[in-house]
C-alpha cells in the first residue's frame, strides 16, 4: 500500500511542485529556448531580416548547420569553459548551450579526421591538448589549423568528457543506463535507451547527440580508420558511462556492459536520437522491471537534486522521506500504474520543459520563442505560497521573508536581466541566462511594471498592520537615498546603452529605455506621487544592473530599500518636485 | 608411500636438467612446490595502441592477433617460468591505455612489483608520454622496478624514436636501463628475453631491498 502511494502521489506532488511552486524551475526551460531566440533577436531588430541573418552567419565560425541548433558562442568571444561546470561536480545541468570546445572540435574532426587511423584510440600530445584546453578555459577559441595532429583535437574533445567528476550521463541515471542495455529484445532495448536519454538535461542530451553523430560517422569509415563501433565504444565507455566514487573493481566488472551501451548507441544513432521518447511496455520480463525501477529512481533523484539546486529544501526533505523509505519496495503493480500515468515523462517535462521532447536537431522556430515568452510572462505572475514566504534561504536569512522571495523570483529570470546584453549567470541557480529578443523583453517588462504598480500599495493606508508587521523591516529610505538610487539607475542605464551602441541593437535598447522611462513618468504624473510600483521597478533595474556590472549582489542594501514604505513615496515625491 | 612420494620424485629426477633453461616445461614448473614459488606482478603501461595487449599475448600464448582492438578495462594473464632456478609465477596485467584509467589506477597497481613502460618506437609521442604514465600511475616510484619496452621494432624503417640505448641517458631515473629492450610483438623478437630479463631484474632488486 505504502509503495503504491509512493508511486502515485510522490510523482504527482513532485511534478506539481516543480511545475507550480517554483518559478526557477522554469528558468532552464526558458533559457534553453532563449538561445534559439537569439537568432530571432538578431533578425527582429533590423529591417532587412534575411540580410542581417546572412551577415551574422558570415562572421560565425563555420558550423555544420544540420545539427547546430544549439549554438555556443557569440561572435568575437566564447563562453569560458568554466561556466559550464558546476563546482566540484560536473557539467552544469542548467546550462543551455553546447560549449564551444565541443562544437569546434567536432566540426574539425568531421572535416579533417574521419579517415585517421585509430581516431579516439590513440592519444595526441598531452602538452598540446592541455595548452588548447587552457585557451578554451579562458573563453578563447583557439585556431585549429587543418594540418593539426587529429589526435590532439580528438584528445581535446575527450578531455571535455573526462575532466568533470560527474559524467555527462549524470550520476543519477547511471543504473538506469546500465539496466537499459541488459534488455534482450532489440526494439525494447532501443525504446529503453531512448527513454532514459530522455531524462537527461537538454544540454547534456544535445552534446551527446553531437558526439554520437560524430562517432556514428567515424565508424562508417572503419575500413580506413579501423575504428569500428566496438573499438570506439571501448575508448569512450569509461569516459561516458561512469559514476562518482565507484570502486575500481566495480568499474572493471561493469566495463563490458558500459561498452555494450556505448556501442549500441553508436550503432543505433538515428533510432536513438531522432525518435521521440516512448515508454517501453512493461511485460513480465525481469530485466525490464529492473530497468523501470532504476529509471524511476533515477528520475526522482534527478528531480530531487534539481530542487535542491533551486533551494527548495523543505520540499526535498518531504520527498526524501517518502522516497527513501519506499523506493526499494516498488512492485510490479506500481510500475504498471507508473507506466500508465507516465510520471517519468511528466517529471522530465516539468524539469526541462516540453520542447525538450522534440528531437534535438529540430530547427528553431519563432513559435518556440513565442512560447518561451508566454511562459516567461506566466512565471512572472506566479504568486508565492505563504508557506514558502516564510522560508529563509541561503544568505537571504537576514532579509524579511517577502524580500527573500521577491529576490528569488527575480533572480530566476527577470525581464531586466534579459535587458543586459551579455549572458548572465544567475548567482543562485547558476543558470546561464541568454537574453531573448528585445521585443519580448519589452513586453514582459511593461507587463511587469503594470502588475507592480497595481500590486503594491500606493500610500500608507493600504498597507495593513499585519503586512507591516510581517515585513518587519521598515527602514525608511530617505529622500537622499531615493535620489541616489535614481542617479545610480540613470548611470547604469547609460552604461548599458553604451555597451549596446557599438552593435546594431543599440538603438533598440535606447528606444526601450525611453519607453520605459516614459511609462514610469506617466505613472508618477497621473497620481501626483511616486507610486510604490515604479519605485520597486526602478530598484529592480538598479539591482539587476548593479549585479551585472559589479558581478556581486549586496543583499543588505536591497532589503533596506525594496519595500517602499509610505515615507519613501513621500520622500521620493519631494525629490522629484 | 605411493602417490605422495612419486610427486616429490619428479623434480629431483629432473634436477640435473635445471642447468639448462630450455628444459623447463611450463607444466613442470606449475607442478613444482607452491611454497617456493614467487609471484611477480607486472603491469604494462603506455599509450593506447602501442601494443601492450599484443606483447602480453605474444609472451604468454606466442600468438599475435592482427585485428585492431582496444582493450576493455584491464586484463591479466599468468605464466609460470623459472628465473635463476626459482619458480616464478608471472602475473602480467594489461591495462587499457585510455586516459580515463590514469585516474583509476592507484588501487589497480597496488602490489605490483614491476612496471613495464611500453612505447611504440615509431611514435615519438608515445615515448614522450612514458614519463607522464610513470608519474601519473605510481604514487611511490621508488617501490617499483621500471623497465622500458620499445615495441614494433619490426617496422624499423619508419622509426621515429632514437635507439633506446642512445636515449637511455636522457631518460628519467629509476628505469632499469640494462633490462630495457626493443621488441616486436608481431614477430616475437626479444619478447621472451625482455620479460625474463625484467623478471630477473625485479627479483634481484627485491633481494637487495630485503
From TrEMBL, chain A:
Top-level lineage group: Eukaryota
Region described as Disordered: spans on this chain: 18-68, 557-577
Gene3D superfamilies documented for this protein: Rho GTPase activation protein
InterPro entries cross-referenced by the UniProt entry: Rho_GTPase_activation_prot, RhoGAP_dom
UniProt biased composition (Polar residues): 564-577
Any GO BP annotation: small GTPase-mediated signal transduction
One Gene Ontology term, aspect cellular component: cytoplasm
Domain Rho-GAP residues, every copy: 79-273
GO molecular function list: GTPase activator activity
Positions with biased composition (Basic residues): 52-63
SMART domains documented for this protein: RhoGAP
Identification of the protein by name: Rho-GAP domain-containing protein
Organism: Planoprotostelium fungivorum
TrEMBL record, chain B:
InterPro entries per the UniProt record, alphabetical: P-loop_NTPase, Small_GTP-bd, Small_GTPase
Superkingdom classification of source: Eukaryota
Keyword Nucleotide-binding: yes
Presence of the UniProt keyword GTP-binding in the record: yes
An MF annotation (GO) of this entry: GTPase activity
Key words, A-Z: GTP-binding, Nucleotide-binding
Pfam families membership: Ras
PANTHER family named in the record: RAB FAMILY, RAS-RELATED PROTEIN RAB-7A
Family of this protein: Belongs to the small GTPase superfamily. Rab family.
Protein's name according to its UniProt entry: Uncharacterized protein
Species of provenance: Planoprotostelium fungivorum
Lineage of producing organism: Eukaryota, Amoebozoa, Evosea, Variosea, Cavosteliida
Amino acid at each position: 500500500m505504502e509503495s503504491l502511494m509512493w508511486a502515485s502521489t510522490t510523482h504527482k506532488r513532485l511534478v506539481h511542485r516543480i511545475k507550480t511552486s517554483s518559478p526557477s524551475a522554469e528558468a532552464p526551460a526558458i533559457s534553453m529556448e532563449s538561445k534559439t531566440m537569439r537568432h530571432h533577436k538578431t533578425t527582429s531588430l533590423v529591417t532587412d531580416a534575411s540580410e542581417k541573418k546572412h551577415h551574422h552567419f558570415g562572421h560565425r565560425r563555420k558550423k555544420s548547420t544540420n545539427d547546430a541548433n544549439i549554438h555556443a558562442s557569440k561572435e568575437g568571444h566564447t563562453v569560458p569553459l568554466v561556466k559550464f561546470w558546476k563546482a566540484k561536480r560536473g557539467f552544469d545541468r542548467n546550462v543551455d548551450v553546447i560549449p564551444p570546445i565541443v562544437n569546434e572540435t567536432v566540426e574539425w574532426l568531421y572535416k579533417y579526421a574521419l579517415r585517421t587511423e585509430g581516431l579516439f584510440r590513440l592519444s595526441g600530445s598531452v602538452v598540446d591538448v592541455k595548452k588548447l584546453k587552457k585557451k578554451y578555459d579562458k573563453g578563447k577559441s583557439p585556431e585549429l589549423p587543418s594540418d593539426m595532429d587529429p589526435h590532439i583535437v580528438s584528445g581535446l574533445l575527450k578531455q571535455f568528457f573526462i575532466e568533470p567528476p560527474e559524467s555527462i550521463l549524470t550520476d543519477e541515471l547511471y543504473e538506469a543506463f546500465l539496466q537499459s542495455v541488459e534488455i534482450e529484445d532489440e526494439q525494447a532495448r532501443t525504446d529503453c535507451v531512448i527513454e532514459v536519454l530522455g531524462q537527461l538535461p537538454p544540454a547534456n542530451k544535445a552534446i551527446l547527440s553531437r558526439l554520437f553523430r560524430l562517432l556514428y560517422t567515424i565508424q562508417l569509415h572503419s575500413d580506413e580508420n579501423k575504428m569500428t563501433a566496438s573499438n570506439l565504444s571501448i575508448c569512450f565507455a569509461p569516459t561516458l558511462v561512469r559514476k562518482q566514487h565507484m570502486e575500481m573493481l566495480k568499474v572493471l566488472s561493469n566495463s563490458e556492459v558500459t561498452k555494450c551501451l556505448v556501442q549500441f548507441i553508436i550503432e543505433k544513432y538515428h533510432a536513438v536520437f531522432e525518435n521521440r521518447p516512448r515508454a517501453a511496455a512493461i511485460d513480465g520480463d525481469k530485466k525490464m522491471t529492473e530497468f523501470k525501477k532504476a529509471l524511476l529512481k533515477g528520475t526522482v533523484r534527478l528531480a530531487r537534486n534539481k530542487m535542491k539546486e533551486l533551494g527548495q529544501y523543505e520540499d526535498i526533505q518531504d520527498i526524501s522521506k517518502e522516497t527513501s523509505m519506499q523506493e526499494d519496495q516498488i512492485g510490479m503493480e506500481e510500475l504498471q500504474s507508473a507506466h500508465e500515468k507516465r510520471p517519468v515523462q511528466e517529471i522530465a517535462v516539468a524539469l526541462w520543459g516540453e520542447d525538450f521532447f522534440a528531437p534535438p536537431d529540430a530547427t528553431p522556430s519563432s513559435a518556440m520563442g513565442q512560447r518561451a515568452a508566454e511562459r516567461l510572462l506566466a512565471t512572472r505572475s506566479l504568486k508565492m505560497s505563504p508557506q514558502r514566504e516564510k522560508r529563509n534561504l541561503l544568505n537571504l536569512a537576514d532579509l524579511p521573508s517577502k524580500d527573500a522571495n521577491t529576490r528569488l523570483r527575480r533572480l530566476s529570470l527577470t525581464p531586466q536581466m534579459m535587458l543586459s546584453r551579455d549572458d548572465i549567470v544567475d548567482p543562485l541557480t547558476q543558470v546561464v541566462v541568454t537574453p531573448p529578443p528585445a521585443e519580448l523583453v519589452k513586453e514582459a517588462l511593461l507587463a511587469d511594471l503594470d502588475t507592480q504598480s497595481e500590486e503594491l500599495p500606493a500610500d500608507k493606508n493600504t498597507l495593513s498592520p499585519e503586512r507591516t508587521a510581517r515585513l518587519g523591516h521598515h527602514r525608511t529610505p530617505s529622500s537622499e537615498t531615493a535620489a541616489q538610487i535614481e542617479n545610480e539607475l540613470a548611470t547604469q542605464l547609460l552604461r548599458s546603452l553604451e555597451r549596446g551602441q557599438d552593435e546594431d541593437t543599440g538603438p533598440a535598447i535606447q528606444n526601450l529605455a525611453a519607453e520605459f522611462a516614459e511609462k514610469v513618468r506617466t505613472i508618477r504624473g497621473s497620481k501626483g506621487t511616486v507610486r510604490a510600483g515604479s519605485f520597486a521597478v526602478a530598484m529592480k533595474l538598479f539591482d539587476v544592473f548593479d549585479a551585472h556590472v559589479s558581478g556581486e549582489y549586496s543583499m543588505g542594501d536591497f532589503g533596506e530599500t525594496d519595500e517602499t514604505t509610505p515615507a519613501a513615496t513621500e520622500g521620493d515625491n519631494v525629490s522629484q518636485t | 608411500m605411493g602417490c605422495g612420494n612419486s610427486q616429490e620424485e619428479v623434480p629431483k629426477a629432473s634436477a640435473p636438467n635445471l642447468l639448462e633453461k630450455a628444459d623447463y616445461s611450463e607444466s613442470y614448473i606449475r607442478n613444482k612446490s607452491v611454497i617456493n614459488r614467487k609471484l611477480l606482478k607486472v603491469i604494462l603501461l603506455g599509450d593506447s595502441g602501442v601494443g601492450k595487449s599484443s606483447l602480453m599475448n605474444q609472451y604468454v600464448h606466442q600468438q599475435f592477433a592482427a585485428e585492431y582492438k582496444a582493450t576493455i578495462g584491464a586484463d591479466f594473464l599468468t605464466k609460470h617460468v623459472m628465473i635463476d632456478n626459482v619458480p616464478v609465477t608471472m602475473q602480467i596485467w594489461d591495462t587499457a591505455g585510455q586516459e580515463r584509467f590514469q585516474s583509476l589506477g592507484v588501487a589497480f597497481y597496488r602490489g605490483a612489483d614491476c612496471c613495464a613502460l611500453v612505447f611504440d618506437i615509431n611514435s615519438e609521442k608515445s615515448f614522450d608520454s612514458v614519463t607522464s604514465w610513470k608519474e601519473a600511475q605510481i604514487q611511490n616510484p621508488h617501490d617499483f622496478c621500471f623497465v622500458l619496452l620499445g615495441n614494433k621494432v619490426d617496422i624499423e624503417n619508419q622509426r621515429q624514436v632514437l635507439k633506446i640505448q642512445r636515449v637511455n641517458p636522457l631518460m628519467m631515473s629509476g628505469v632499469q636501463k640494462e633490462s630495457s629492450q626493443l621488441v616486436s610483438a608481431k614477430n616475437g623478437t626479444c619478447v621472451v628475453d625482455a620479460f625474463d630479463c625484467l623478471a630477473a631484474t625485479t627479483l634481484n632488486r627485491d633481494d637487495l631491498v630485503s
